[in-house]
Design brief:
With about 170 residues, the chain is mostly helical. It is built from 5 helices and no strands.
Length: about 170
Protein backbone atom coordinates (compact mmCIF):
# COMPACT_ATOMS: atom_id res chain seq x y z
CA UNK A 1 0.00 0.00 0.00
CA UNK A 2 2.82 2.39 0.71
CA UNK A 3 4.22 1.75 -2.69
CA UNK A 4 0.91 2.41 -4.35
CA UNK A 5 0.53 5.68 -2.48
CA UNK A 6 3.98 6.89 -3.56
CA UNK A 7 3.24 6.20 -7.21
CA UNK A 8 -0.10 7.99 -6.88
CA UNK A 9 1.63 11.01 -5.36
CA UNK A 10 4.25 10.99 -8.09
CA UNK A 11 1.55 10.86 -10.76
CA UNK A 12 -0.86 13.38 -9.21
CA UNK A 13 1.63 15.87 -7.83
CA UNK A 14 2.63 17.38 -11.20
CA UNK A 15 -1.02 17.49 -12.27
CA UNK A 16 -2.02 19.31 -9.05
CA UNK A 17 0.92 21.71 -9.40
CA UNK A 18 -0.04 22.44 -13.01
CA UNK A 19 -3.67 23.02 -12.03
CA UNK A 20 -2.65 25.41 -9.23
CA UNK A 21 -0.32 27.30 -11.55
CA UNK A 22 -3.11 27.63 -14.13
CA UNK A 23 -5.53 28.95 -11.51
CA UNK A 24 -2.96 31.45 -10.23
CA UNK A 25 -2.18 32.73 -13.75
CA UNK A 26 -5.88 32.97 -14.60
CA UNK A 27 -6.59 34.90 -11.39
CA UNK A 28 -3.79 37.35 -12.12
CA UNK A 29 -4.71 37.80 -15.77
CA UNK A 30 -8.33 38.77 -15.05
CA UNK A 31 -8.84 42.19 -13.54
CA UNK A 32 -10.78 42.30 -10.31
CA UNK A 33 -14.23 43.92 -10.26
CA UNK A 34 -12.78 46.89 -8.34
CA UNK A 35 -10.25 47.52 -11.11
CA UNK A 36 -13.00 47.36 -13.73
CA UNK A 37 -15.12 49.83 -11.76
CA UNK A 38 -12.17 52.20 -11.24
CA UNK A 39 -11.31 52.06 -14.94
CA UNK A 40 -14.91 52.81 -15.91
CA UNK A 41 -15.08 55.69 -13.41
CA UNK A 42 -11.82 57.14 -14.68
CA UNK A 43 -13.09 56.97 -18.27
CA UNK A 44 -16.36 58.63 -17.24
CA UNK A 45 -14.54 61.45 -15.42
CA UNK A 46 -12.28 62.08 -18.41
CA UNK A 47 -15.35 62.36 -20.67
CA UNK A 48 -16.96 64.77 -18.18
CA UNK A 49 -13.78 66.86 -18.17
CA UNK A 50 -13.88 67.12 -21.96
CA UNK A 51 -17.53 68.23 -21.82
CA UNK A 52 -16.73 70.86 -19.18
CA UNK A 53 -13.78 72.21 -21.18
CA UNK A 54 -15.96 72.44 -24.29
CA UNK A 55 -18.65 74.28 -22.30
CA UNK A 56 -16.07 76.70 -20.94
CA UNK A 57 -14.85 77.50 -24.46
CA UNK A 58 -18.43 78.20 -25.53
CA UNK A 59 -19.13 80.41 -22.50
CA UNK A 60 -15.84 82.27 -22.91
CA UNK A 61 -16.67 83.03 -26.56
CA UNK A 62 -20.14 84.23 -25.56
CA UNK A 63 -18.65 86.49 -22.89
CA UNK A 64 -16.16 88.03 -25.34
CA UNK A 65 -18.87 88.48 -27.94
CA UNK A 66 -21.28 90.10 -25.49
CA UNK A 67 -18.57 92.41 -24.18
CA UNK A 68 -17.52 93.45 -27.69
CA UNK A 69 -21.10 94.20 -28.73
CA UNK A 70 -21.86 96.10 -25.52
CA UNK A 71 -24.64 93.77 -24.37
CA UNK A 72 -25.73 94.03 -20.76
CA UNK A 73 -25.15 90.27 -20.35
CA UNK A 74 -21.48 91.22 -20.23
CA UNK A 75 -22.14 93.51 -17.26
CA UNK A 76 -22.70 92.69 -13.61
CA UNK A 77 -25.78 93.81 -11.69
CA UNK A 78 -23.66 96.39 -9.87
CA UNK A 79 -22.09 97.67 -13.08
CA UNK A 80 -25.52 97.83 -14.72
CA UNK A 81 -26.83 100.00 -11.87
CA UNK A 82 -23.88 102.38 -12.26
CA UNK A 83 -24.45 102.48 -16.05
CA UNK A 84 -28.13 103.36 -15.56
CA UNK A 85 -27.14 106.05 -13.04
CA UNK A 86 -24.80 107.60 -15.61
CA UNK A 87 -27.57 107.53 -18.21
CA UNK A 88 -29.95 109.22 -15.75
CA UNK A 89 -27.35 111.91 -15.03
CA UNK A 90 -27.00 112.58 -18.77
CA UNK A 91 -30.76 112.93 -19.02
CA UNK A 92 -30.91 115.29 -16.06
CA UNK A 93 -28.17 117.46 -17.61
CA UNK A 94 -30.21 117.74 -20.81
CA UNK A 95 -33.33 118.61 -18.82
CA UNK A 96 -31.48 121.30 -16.85
CA UNK A 97 -30.07 122.78 -20.06
CA UNK A 98 -33.57 122.98 -21.54
CA UNK A 99 -35.12 124.58 -18.46
CA UNK A 100 -35.54 128.33 -18.01
CA UNK A 101 -33.20 129.90 -15.45
CA UNK A 102 -34.64 130.19 -11.94
CA UNK A 103 -37.71 128.17 -12.89
CA UNK A 104 -39.32 125.70 -10.53
CA UNK A 105 -38.67 122.93 -13.07
CA UNK A 106 -34.96 123.73 -13.18
CA UNK A 107 -34.71 123.59 -9.39
CA UNK A 108 -36.52 120.24 -9.42
CA UNK A 109 -34.19 118.90 -12.15
CA UNK A 110 -31.13 120.12 -10.26
CA UNK A 111 -32.30 118.31 -7.13
CA UNK A 112 -32.86 115.13 -9.19
CA UNK A 113 -29.41 115.61 -10.74
CA UNK A 114 -27.84 115.84 -7.27
CA UNK A 115 -29.72 112.72 -6.14
CA UNK A 116 -28.55 110.81 -9.23
CA UNK A 117 -24.94 111.80 -8.56
CA UNK A 118 -25.21 110.52 -4.97
CA UNK A 119 -26.80 107.30 -6.20
CA UNK A 120 -24.01 106.82 -8.77
CA UNK A 121 -21.37 107.35 -6.10
CA UNK A 122 -23.05 104.79 -3.80
CA UNK A 123 -23.45 102.25 -6.64
CA UNK A 124 -19.81 102.64 -7.65
CA UNK A 125 -18.73 102.07 -4.04
CA UNK A 126 -20.94 98.96 -3.84
CA UNK A 127 -19.47 97.63 -7.08
CA UNK A 128 -15.94 98.18 -5.79
CA UNK A 129 -16.71 96.53 -2.43
CA UNK A 130 -18.46 93.55 -4.05
CA UNK A 131 -15.58 93.06 -6.44
CA UNK A 132 -13.07 93.18 -3.58
CA UNK A 133 -15.07 90.57 -1.64
CA UNK A 134 -15.45 88.38 -4.71
CA UNK A 135 -19.25 88.53 -4.64
CA UNK A 136 -21.07 87.31 -7.71
CA UNK A 137 -23.06 90.57 -7.81
CA UNK A 138 -19.85 92.13 -9.12
CA UNK A 139 -19.69 89.56 -11.93
CA UNK A 140 -21.63 89.44 -15.16
CA UNK A 141 -23.82 86.47 -16.04
CA UNK A 142 -21.26 85.48 -18.66
CA UNK A 143 -18.34 85.76 -16.24
CA UNK A 144 -20.30 83.77 -13.66
CA UNK A 145 -20.83 80.95 -16.18
CA UNK A 146 -17.12 80.89 -17.01
CA UNK A 147 -16.27 80.88 -13.30
CA UNK A 148 -18.59 77.93 -12.68
CA UNK A 149 -17.08 76.11 -15.68
CA UNK A 150 -13.60 76.61 -14.21
CA UNK A 151 -14.78 75.26 -10.86
CA UNK A 152 -16.30 72.21 -12.57
CA UNK A 153 -13.07 71.57 -14.47
CA UNK A 154 -11.07 71.76 -11.23
CA UNK A 155 -13.45 69.25 -9.67
CA UNK A 156 -13.20 66.88 -12.63
CA UNK A 157 -9.40 67.03 -12.55
CA UNK A 158 -9.47 66.28 -8.84
CA UNK A 159 -11.81 63.32 -9.46
CA UNK A 160 -9.56 61.99 -12.22
CA UNK A 161 -6.51 62.16 -9.95
CA UNK A 162 -8.39 60.33 -7.18
CA UNK A 163 -9.65 57.69 -9.63
CA UNK A 164 -6.18 57.14 -11.07
CA UNK A 165 -4.72 56.70 -7.57
CA UNK A 166 -7.48 54.27 -6.60
CA UNK A 167 -7.03 52.32 -9.83
CA UNK A 168 -3.28 52.08 -9.22
CA UNK A 169 -3.84 50.86 -5.67
CA UNK A 170 -6.39 48.27 -6.80
CA UNK A 171 -4.07 47.00 -9.51
CA UNK A 172 -1.33 46.38 -6.95
CA UNK A 173 -3.63 44.15 -4.88
Amino acid sequence: MTMNMKSTYKTCLPAVAAALAFVAVTAIAQPSPAVKEDTAQLKSDKAALQREEKQMKTDTKAMKSDKASGRMAAESKDAERAYKDRQAIKGEKKDIAADKPDSLQRKSDQAAFSDQQKKLKADKAKLKADKAEGKMAAESKDAERVYKDRQAIKGEKKDIAADAAKLKADQKK
